[in-house]
Amino acid sequence: MTEIIKLTFPVTVDGHEYAELNMRRPKVRDRLMVDKADISESESEIRYFSHLCEVSPDIIEELDWSDFVKLREALQAFLVSRPSV
C-alpha cells in the first residue's frame, strides 16, 4: 500500500520536477536502517522519508515545510491504520 502525497509547492532537483511523492508503508527494517546511522535526528528523518518515498534525500531537503508536514501526516496515518477484517 502506498500513499500519494501531492506537493503544494513542487520542487525541481537535477532538472526533474516533483509535484507528488509516493510513500509506501514502513517496515521495522526501514526504521532500523536509519537508526543505525550516526546522524542527527533531523537527518535521520530526512533519510527515513527518502527511503519510504524512494527518492534522493536531496528531494526531501528541498521540500517546503508545509509539504514536509504532509509526509509526517502520511506516516502517522500508516502507523495508526489497521487492516479491515
TrEMBL record:
This is Phage tail assembly protein. Pfam families: Phage_TAC_7 (PF10109).
